[in-house]
Amino acid sequence: EVSCRRLGGGLVQAGGSLRLSCAASGRFHTYAMGWFRQAPGKERDFVATISWIGGTTDYTDSVKGRFTISRDNAKNTVYLQMNSLKPEDTAVYYCAASRGASISTMQKAYDYWGQGTQVTVSS
Q1: For residues 57 and 104, is the Cβ–Cβ distance under 8 A?
Q2: Which residue of 35, 60, 96, 119 is 20 to 30 Å from 110, comparing CA positions?
Q3: Is the pLDDT of residue 7 over 80?
Q4: Residue 31: DSSP 8-state
Q5: Residue 63 carries which DSSP code?
Q6: How confident is the model at residue 25 (pLDDT cuts 50, 70, 90)?
Q7: pLDDT tops 70 at residue 29
Q8: What is the rounded (10 degree) CA torsion for 70, 72, 77, 82?
Q9: Which residues of 87-112 are buried (b: 16+ CB within 10 A; e: fewer)?
């Protein structure tokens, strides 16, 4: 089971920061984790991913240098630190867990999904 929790509120002005967290049960420490987002009227897209031990990460180009994915296996939690937010980052953000240990940008690689959390960035 995967659940998402947002830290710091869901509405922020452009240039601001938010931190998302996602708690997972089960064999969390063996899962690769990912964040995806779905903007209004658009398909759900890849944002970031991290390997099971946290040594390997990948990001979609539009968030590189602004977002950071990390994990704390002792807490069964993965984080997405979002800085320098832009209005185009507005979306519902989903975390996902993959039983595979390697990172993936593909939604089909993920087995468990959180319920999503709204992030709104005002201009």
Answers
A1: no
A2: 119
A3: no
A4: -
A5: G
A6: confident
A7: yes
A8: -30
A9: eebbbbbbbbbbeeeebbeeeebbeb
* Predicted pLDDT at 8: 54
Q: What is the pLDDT of the chain when averaged over all its residues?
A: 91
CA atoms within 13 A on the CB side of 32: 22
List C-alpha distances in Å: 102 to 31, 45, 80, 105. 8, 18, 18, 10
Q: Are 20 and 93 in contact (CB under 8 A)?
A: yes
Of 119, 85, 117, which is closest to residue 11 (Cα–Cα)? 119
Q: What stretch of H or E contains 69?
A: strand 67-72
